[in-house]
Amino acid sequence: MHQIDASGIRKVFDLAAEMQNPVNLSIGQPHYDTPDLIKDALCQAVHDGRNAYSQSQGIPDLIERIQSDVDARWDHDDRRVFISSGTSGALMLALSCLVNPGDEVVIFDPYFVMYKHLTRMVGGIPVFVNTYPDFHLDLDRVRQAVTPRTKLILCNSPSNPTGYVAGSDEIQALAEFAAEREIALVSDEIYKSFCYDAPNVSPADWNDQTLVIDGFSKSHSMTGWRLGYVHGPQHLIQQMIKLQQFTFVCAPHPVQWAGLAACDLGMTDRVEEYRCKRDLLVRELSDDFEVAGAHGAFYLFLPTAWGTGTEFVTEAIRQNLLIIPGNVFSEQDTHFRVSYAAEDETLLRGAEILRRLARGGP
């Protein structure tokens, strides 16, 4: 635990605690509420007495529903599904099952903040592959990072924090490379619904050993419900279920029934709404900031107009704008993350402050 440095984000939160009615563009979750159909399904499950433990792997109805979608897309004979306690829980199970102390884990930088810390918690060594300035997944850089101790590659597309969506050529090359080198490949696809310029692709399209982690948190605004799912080769899935039995026990039982309702609820209107929010914020900021990525999820990862990411964000907070410094997500401190999961009025107010900061200097 002493290897985990939470000081950067803690400093931001300490400053934010002093803010009065901030313009909040830091939120890593949808700004809309969970749809009523899903809420009703949860309430019904509770009233129906579905409040005890479920099987560790999840309720059969939900597994079968997701398995049918997985089979229809991939048709891998050995690919199996289980239900996890959120995607974060799934990541913890995956790393615990795959990584021994001293094993190296390749992580693309910038990265979801949990990747580095979970790797260290299981005794692994994070090895960072720089994707600046355009966040492209460069296979040559991956080759240079891989050693005989490399056990796992973590891929996240669409990406948090950059909003980058990797193209099919990048994903195919990465998937085939991992298969060739017999390196485990974990694909975190929690933002797959939020792709604005091209369809989402998965490394499982080219590598049948890929472990895919997904869930309902972002698409259906269920972040607090802790419901995810995993699919991958059966031998690994069985080990993850075994570990779930002795850690999380199971995903919350009544929430799984709500997830079954969510499976048949389309969220395309919300995705289109977020596409418009992306376009709005890019239009407002592109004269003052260089925008890369921003093809999916609901984030912009922008280089500062001056100073380090921490210095720029500290001044933004003083001007009542809450954003996150890039060093929370990166080994560099040159950028900051903006979330556009907010009302348009909030986005416009935030953009105004950012323009003023960029033009005014430190």
The ordered string of helix (H) and strand (E) elements is: HEHHEHEHEHEHEEEHHHEHEEEH
Count every helix, treating DSSP H or I runs of 4 or more residues as helices: 12
Strand numbers in spatial order across the main sheet: 2-8-7-6-5-3-4
Q: What kind of sheet is the major sheet?
A: 7 strands, mixed
How much strand content do the residues show? 15-25%
- Euclidean distance between termini CA atoms: 35 Å
Architecture of the largest domain, according to CATH?
3-Layer(aba) Sandwich
- Class from secondary-structure proportions: alpha/beta
**Count of individual beta strands:** 12
Question: What can you see in these coordinates?
Answer:
The structure is a single chain. The protein has 362 residues and is of the alpha/beta class. It folds into two domains: 7-28 and 267-360, Aspartate Aminotransferase, domain 1; 36-262, 3-Layer(aba) Sandwich (Aspartate Aminotransferase, domain 2), CATH 3.40.640. The protein has twelve helices and twelve strands. The chain has helices at 7-16, 36-47, 60-74, 86-98, 113-121, 139-145, 168-181, 234-245, 253-262, 268-285, 309-318, 344-360; strands at residues 23-24, 79-84, 104-109, 125-130, 150-156, 184-188, 211-215, 228-233, 299-303, 321-322, 324-325, 335-339. The strands form three sheets. It has a seven-stranded mixed β-sheet, with helices on both faces. Strands 9-12-11 form a three-stranded antiparallel β-sheet. Helix 7 (168-181) links the parallel strand 5 and strand 6. Helix 1 packs parallel to helix 11, helix 2 runs antiparallel to helix 9 (253-262) and helix 4 crosses helix 5 (113-121). The radius of gyration is 20 Å and the shape is globular.
